[in-house]
Structure formats: structure tokens, C-alpha cells
Write a structure and sequence with these properties.
The protein has helices at about 10-25, 25-45, 60-65, 70-80, 85-100, 105-115, 120-130, 135-145, 155-160, 175-200, 205-210, 215-240, 250-255, 260-265, 265-275, 280-310. The protein contains 16 helices and no strands.
Length: about 325
């Protein structure tokens, strides 16, 4: 049996070639270093503080000197009367946003791509992009104004149609619908950019050949556009599932009031209120770590499924 042994002398040569390539394109590596440093400082270094979930943390003693508590904070959280309500509110709101909101940017990108007029295309892009740059405080303020049961434009329109005014912001059963619909309106244009980029990367000759073969516009969309976007759709779906439990903390907090709290209280707002405002750092760190572990497990499962079913995955 023949075996090929790579001489050890080639390794220094390979290292020199690697450094030579890095030096010749150093600008790109500098650009790469900026987000890399940001992630290390703000994402990886704070992981040091995870250990307070397993300690009775005291700010005067510090993280290292605080006594260990084991899994006591996790047990307290899992056995609390509000655990299942928090988990259900978070999951239901996240799944609602994923199932309803995820396809909308894809459909919008297909619509924009199929428009022939350049002015109409630019106008639609600008109109759908602008809401993304509005502050969440402004968005929630607009919701309170437009959905007011007495003076809101939405209820005035409903009154013209013979429908009684609906207190959207004062009823718990409307909380998730208002949250998801406004979130779609705000971000669908911005999220469609990456799908438009995927569409422009498709070879135009495929459309021309399909058109010559008699394929309708819908058939070209179904058999060329969607398959061409599929790798991007899969990657975006995996990334969104990886943040399934981290949905809109700031917006949820701003939309909350004593009336809709039964549907509006999620894990992230619970951690903020009890951890930051009441100083229960170890207890809420355990709840936050539980939240992150669920996201991590979902990311692994969905990525494995995507790798088996398609040719696209994160790793």
C-alpha cells in the first residue's frame, strides 16, 4: 500500500505563503478585524459573568468572591408560578412573528424584482425601507395614537364600516397581533434587501430560456426565482430561529401596560424588571441563561435539519 508523507519542510513554506497573502490584502483583514474585535469585547468577554447564575452574587464581594449556589436559582425559576406563562408568552410571540413575518420580506423582494418600471420600483423600495430607521419609541407612540379607541384613525375607519371601536392597546388578546403586524411593517423593506441581492445574482439567461419555452411569469417565479433564493432563505431562517427567544425586548417593554401584561410579559422583560430594577442578579441570570440555552439548542437542531434537507447551512 502506497502512502504519501508530506515533508515537514513544506510547513514553513506554507506559513510564509499564508503571511504573504495576508500582507498583500491587509486592507481586507483590517476590515475583518473591526467586527471581530467588537464581537470579542461585547459578546465573548461578558460570558465571564454567566457564573453568577450559579452563585449568590453580591456586588460588594464581586463575582469571584460570591458564594456558590449551584442550581438553586434555576430550581426556583422552574418551580415559580409564572414560569410556564413566561415561557408560553415568549414562544407564542416568537413563533407568531416567525410564521407570519418571515415570508413577507421574501414576497416583497419578489414583488419589487418583478416590477418593470424603475420609478415605481425605487418608490416602493424607499417607502418600505424608511420605517426601519424610525425609533421604537416613535413606533410605539404611533401605535398608541393610531389605535386609540376614541381618536385613532384605525378605529375611525372601523366606525365608518359599522364596527365598534376596538381598544387594541388595552386588550391582552390584541397584544401579539399588534406587535407582529407593526414589526412586519417596520422591517419588511429592510429585510427584503438581502433577498433582492439573491435575486439579482440569478443568471438572466435562465429567465430568457424559460420565457422562450413558454413559461409564464408565475412559472418563472416558481421554478427559477424561488430555487435561486433558497440558499439565502435557509440561512436567514436558521439565523432567525437562533434568536427565536430574543424577540423585541425593547418594543415589548414599551408596549406593555397593566392591562395587557398577561400576554406581554416575556422572559426578556422579566429579566430586566427583576434583574436590573430589583437587583435579583443571580436569579435573573439563571432565567436569561435558560433563555440562551433554548436558542442554542434550536440553532443546532435547525442547522442540522437544513444540512440534511438542503445544501445550505451555517456549518
Amino acid at each position: 500500500m502506497n502512502t504519501t508523507i508530506i515533508p515537514q519542510s513544506l510547513q514553513p513554506t506554507q506559513r510564509r505563503r499564508l503571511w504573504k497573502r495576508i500582507l498583500t490584502k491587509y486592507e481586507f483583514y483590517i476590515m475583518l478585524a473591526i467586527p471581530l474585535i467588537w464581537y470579542i469585547i461585547f459578546k465573548y468577554v461578558p460570558m465571564y459573568g454567566i457564573q453568577i447564575a450559579f452563585k449568590d452574587f453580591s456586588a460588594t464581594r464581586g463575582i469571584m468572591a460570591s458564594p456558590w449556589a449551584g442550581f438553586r436559582h434555576f430550581e426556583r425559576f422552574f418551580e415559580s408560578s409564572y414560569f410556564w406563562e413566561l415561557l408560553w408568552n415568549t414562544l407564542s410571540l416568537s413563533l407568531y412573528s416567525l410564521l407570519v413575518g418571515f415570508p413577507v420580506p421574501i414576497l416583497l423582494a419578489l414583488l419589487i424584482y418583478e416590477i418593470n418600471g424603475k420609478r415605481m420600483k425605487k418608490w416602493l423600495q424607499n417607502v418600505t425601507y424608511i420605517p426601519h430607521f424610525l425609533s421604537l419609541v416613535v413606533i410605539v407612540g404611533m401605535l398608541n395614537v393610531f389605535l386609540d379607541p376614541d381618536t385613532g384613525k384605525v378605529n375611525q375607519l372601523l366606525s365608518l364600516l359599522g364596527v365598534d371601536p376596538v381598544p387594541f392597546m388595552r386588550k391582552a388578546e390584541w397584544f401579539q397581533t399588534v406587535f407582529v403586524s407593526s414589526d412586519i411593517w417596520q422591517h419588511m423593506g429592510w429585510s427584503s434587501i438581502i433577498y433582492l441581492a439573491a435575486l439579482t445574482a440569478i443568471d438572466p439567461t435562465q429567465y430568457e430560456a424559460a420565457k422562450m419555452d413558454g413559461a409564464s411569469r408565475f412559472q418563472r417565479l416558481l421554478h427559477i426565482s424561488l430555487p435561486g433564493m433558497l440558499p439565502t432563505i435557509v440561512i436567514m431562517f436558521i439565523l432567525q430561529v437562533g434568536h427565536l427567544m430574543d424577540i423585541g425586548f425593547e418594543k415589548v417593554l414599551l408596549m406593555q401596560n397593566p392591562v395587557n401584561a398577561s400576554k406581554g410579559e416575556i422572559l426578556a422583560t422579566f429579566v430586566y424588571k427583576n434583574g436590573i430594577q430589583q437587583g435579583q442578579f443571580s436569579y435573573t441570570a439563571a432565567a436569561g441563561l435558560f433563555n440562551s440555552v433554548i436558542d442554542f439548542i434550536l440553532l443546532i437542531l435547525v442547522n442540522s435539519w437544513a444540512r440534511k434537507k438542503t445544501d445550505s447551512s451555517l456549518w
